[in-house]
Write a structure and sequence with these properties.
single chain, 183 residues, alpha+beta, five-stranded antiparallel β-sheet, four-stranded mixed β-sheet, 5 helices, 11 strands, 29% helix, 23% strand
Length: 183
């Protein structure tokens, strides 16, 4: 009997380690719930860095997880998006100071017709971006490009279409700041 107690006492840590390793590899979601670290989108394209940012492994861009509406709780016109991004840089959001208003081409990389994130707050408009991003944000985001003296472009995440609107218009519009990252 004495040798059995020593045997169990000796191998107990190894058995616990084997159980945890099995749980990490077999049980879906176990690792995400128990160990801090990056979380991946279902298709492994996006990485939630755990600091309010999402990295895109396809484009090399890093995005804010929340858009400006989710972050500030109000809509922004095009001029306000510039101020918003400047504030992010001044406060070194997520320890970075090179945030930008994205180009239309960069915004278009987020649109995926087969994915559904959520609906725009107060609207039936569906937001077709990866569900790894925060839910219920702005369904339209401003781009950096302008169109003449009074208008600017952006994207509608319901359709992936480009919009052209007065820069002072802030009706249900926001911005999702972006920066280059180097994996």
């Amino acid at each position: 009997m004495h040798w059995k107690m020593n045997y169990i006492k000796f191998f107990r840590p190894a058995l616990i380690a084997i159980f945890l390793l099995a749980a990490l590899t077999i049980v879906p979601g176990f690792a995400e719930d128990t160990i801090d670290g990056p979380k991946y989108s279902a298709d492994k394209r996006f990485i939630d860095n755990g600091d309010g940012t999402i990295s895109d492994t396809k484009t090399g861009l890093m995005w804010m997880k929340d858009d400006s509406y989710q972050h500030k709780k109000h809509w922004l016109n095009w001029f306000q998006t510039k101020e918003y991004v400047a504030d992010l840089n001044n406060e070194a959001f997520a320890d970075y100071t090179n945030w930008q208003v994205p180009t239309f081409k960069e915004l278009l990389t987020l649109y995926e017709a087969d994915k559904l994130n959520s609906s725009q707050v107060g609207s039936e408009m569906k937001i077709h971006i990866d569900p790894i991003f925060s839910k219920n944000g702005a369904g339209s985001h401003w781009a950096a490009e302008t169109n003449g003296h009074y208008n600017a472009f952006g994207i509608v995440y319901n359709t992936g279409d480009r919009f052209n609107s007065a820069r002072r218009n802030k009706s249900r519009k926001g911005v999702r700041a972006v920066r280059q990252y180097f994996p």
